[in-house]
Write a structure and sequence with these properties.
heterotrimer; A alpha/beta (353); B alpha+beta (76); C alpha/beta (248); A: 353 residues; alpha/beta; Rossmann fold; 2 domains; eight-stranded mixed sheet; 12 helices; 16 strands; C: 248 residues; 8 strands; 36% helix; globular
């Protein structure tokens, strides 16, 4: 195990290379340019291929092509670029191809700004692209988690033949923290993926393989959609991840992800030191959403969702809570981060303090 | 150096486009008045003895619907 | 001694769904024959984007990836970079290649991606019923230029190989036609040359193939052949726009 000081964006590249991703295609967009630059330096050294594509659209289609050959491949962007990728992402999901997409969120909608936000939650978890598909979405809240979740993302993408998203933000992407890295690939459970007999590699020695997503017969397309649906239900059964912090006896639950969760956690600690029984639910998988974390709300008086948007994960929290307990919202957006003191005030309002 | 050649048209694949008829230099193809299973008037060979085996019909057919076998003199 | 002209190995037995007289059938055969004559079938990955030929996988017996509209050169890049020793080609229509896909086309050529593009130019969007394409001729009637294409409003047709000539990475650019046996034979030679350019690792190759679209041109197949000859060749001159020495 080594300890390395690393920037969030770089940790994505490092994590990807650690688990044998050898192909990266991307396009410059702030605040994630370091990812492409890291890959431009490191991938050729690792015997891989880096292409700065002509657009985010081209990049996602290159990802589709490489993924079809069975290799681990990724791209990265920020909101506007992820929007451009949506058709390609729908194709990749429909074709059941694995890949990893990192979205380092910035202010939106439109050109927005280059400061951090969490306003692509809907885009990541509710579609964005057309058709009935889902993406596995992981939300790190530290550089260590960025590194680890990137590795896990490749593993999950291969396991389920589905795209996986690392949903970061400009703050996480730019900050630097110490990361513990495995010294040898042999120690890494996520380094090797499964065999891919379906890949299009040239049909020598076998029948031809076809990667397509057009099924003109309604019965065929319906069957395919239900097949995808069964897969998503399997992912939902097996892969929900969440961190529960001081929730055992909590009366007020704060729900938060990513960088906002670090701020919320500080607010929870501040509340506790003032005698308020607050706790934090921090979803790691935004899809599948860890609704099971909300099973036991017997002692809970109120829930506060804290996000850097105008209320997106809020809807999934409300769905999970299903009316049992009031769910309130506190958000900052446009590049502003919530202040833990302000979150504490909101916690107190819920607690009637 | 008599060349014998045989033209085989896959009747049910033919869409009656007429290109083989147009390009046959010997004029031995025409469209049948009777339709095939798809409802097209397929090409038929009306005078196989005149076929030179040039293969033009094979070249222009958009449906891989024609085979041309060219036999040199003295072979079976 | 007998020779038989018949369906080549790489073509499936499936009946083609294309319209009567459509050039796709001829070009599919030429591509299949070139691949078989050069013993490429088991190394081939074909990319089939949106257009009438999106169903390519039904007609060829080798690995095929279906691509989104316009994106085949990017998908092909992704395949070829991962599998540099395989033979990768795209099969694109004029709307796909020169309209929505123009960016991907130019950049794959600029990067000198060692892929081959088979470009079917029939001056309209066939699959969707005959709308104007970047290659529609001036004054040509299409469903979105019902009075005939007027340059003042809809611009001029694009000559793709000429456009790509200035790109160093593009090493073989040609235009052929399949409107009669002589040109069909020339087309096949050009296709094989383009394939050889890829096998020799020299760079990007593209063959534009002037084709007919009887249905959307509102003509019968024989009339459409004549229309191509009389109207398209003067706008889209045949020949090798750019070539390399030492490849034949």
């Amino acid at each position: 195990m080594s300890r390395v000081l690393m920037k969030g964006n770089d940790a994505i590249g490092a994590g990807a290379i650690a688990v044998n991703c050898r192909y990266y295609y991307g396009y410059p967009i702030t605040p994630q340019n370091e990812i492409g630059e890291y890959m431009a330096r490191e991938l050729p050294r690792a015997g891989g291929v880096f292409i700065q594509a002509e657009s985010e659209v081209a990049a996602i289609n290159m990802v589709y092509g490489t993924s079809a050959t069975g290799a681990r491949v990724m791209t990265s962007s920020s909101g506007p670029g992820i929007s451009l990728k949506m058709e390609g992402i729908s194709y990749i999901a429909a074709a059941e191809l694995p890949c990893v997409i990192a979205n380092i969120m910035r202010g939106g909608p439109g050109l927005g700004n280059i400061a951090p936000s969490q306003s692509d939650y809907f885009q990541a978890t509710k579609g964005g692209g057309h058709g009935d598909y889902r993406l596995i979405v992981l939300a790190p809240s530290s550089v260590q988690e960025i590194y680890d979740f990137t590795r896990i993302a490749f593993y999950l993408a291969d396991k389920y033949r589905n795209p996986a998203v690392i949903l970061g933000d400009g703050f996480l992407g730019q900050m630097m923290e110490v990361v513990e890295i495995l010294d040898s690939e042999a120690d890494d459970d996520y380094a090797t993926g499964p065999e891919k007999p379906w890949a299009t590699t040239g049909c020598e020695g076998r029948e031809k393989n076809v990667i397509n997503t057009l099924l003109m017969e309604p019965d065929q397309l319906e069957a395919h959609n239900w097949k995808l649906n069964r897969k998503y239900r399997q992912i939902a059964e097996n892969e929900k991840r969440v961190v529960m912090y001081r929730t055992e006896d909590a009366e007020i639950l704060v729900v938060s992800f990513g960088i906002a969760a670090r701020i919320s956690r500080e607010a929870v600690d501040m509340a506790r030191s003032e005698g308020i029984k607050a706790g934090l639910i921090r979803p790691i998988t935004l899809w599948p959403f860890p609704d099971h974390a909300f099973n036991d709300l017997d002692s809970v008086k109120g829930i506060l969702t804290v996000e850097m948007n105008t209320g997106q994960m809020l809807e999934d929290v409300r769905l999970s809570v299903n009316g049992r307990v009031p769910v309130e919202f506190y958000g900052r957006t446009g590049g502003n981060l919530p202040d833990s003191k302000d979150v504490l005030e909101e916690i107190k309002k819920i607690g009637g303090v | 150096m008599a060349v014998k050649a045989k033209v085989k048209i896959f009747r049910e694949k033919c869409k009656g486009c007429g290109l083989c008829v147009k390009f046959c230099p010997r004029g031995i193809l025409e469209l049948d008045k009777k339709i095939n299973i798809q409802g097209y008037n397929p090409a038929i060979v009306i005078d196989e003895d005149k076929c030179s085996g040039c293969g033009f019909c094979f070249l222009v057919c958009p449906d891989v619907g024609i085979e041309v076998e060219k036999l040199e003199e003295g072979s079976k | 001694m007998s020779t038989v002209l018949k369906k080549t190995r790489s073509l499936e037995d499936a009946a083609l769904h294309y319209c009567p007289g459509c050039s796709h059938g001829v070009v599919h055969r030429l591509v299949g024959e070139a691949i078989d004559e050069m013993d490429l079938r088991e190394q081939t990955v074909g990319i089939a984007p949106v257009g009438c030929s999106v169903f390519l996988d039904a007609y060829f017996d080798f690995d095929i990836i279906q691509a989104a509209h316009g994106r085949a050169p990017a998908v092909a890049t992704g395949v070829k970079r991962a599998l540099p020793d395989r033979f990768v080609f795209t099969y694109q229509g004029d709307g796909d290649l020169a309209s929505i896909g123009m960016g991907e086309l130019v950049h794959a050529a600029a990067r000198g991606e060692r892929i081959t593009i088979i470009f079917i130019n029939n001056t309209n969007y066939g699959m969707t019923g005959g709308q104007m394409a970047p290659t529609t001729l001036e004054n040509q009637v299409t469903t979105t230029t019902p009075e005939g294409r007027e340059a003042r409003l809809s611009g001029y047709p694009i000559r793709v190989p000429e456009l790509l000539c200035s790109l160093q990475g593009a090493v073989y650019l040609s235009r052929v036609s399949v409107h009669n046996p002589k040109n069909i034979n020339k087309a096949k030679k050009s296709i094989k040359k383009a394939f050889q350019v890829q096998r020799d690792g020299l760079g990007f190759s593209l063959v534009e193939i002037l084709s007919v679209c009887p249905t959307n041109w509102r003509m019968n197949p024989v009339q459409s052949i004549q229309w191509l000859e009389e109207n398209m060749i003067e706008v889209y001159p045949l020949g090798e726009l750019k070539t390399v020495q030492g490849v034949s």
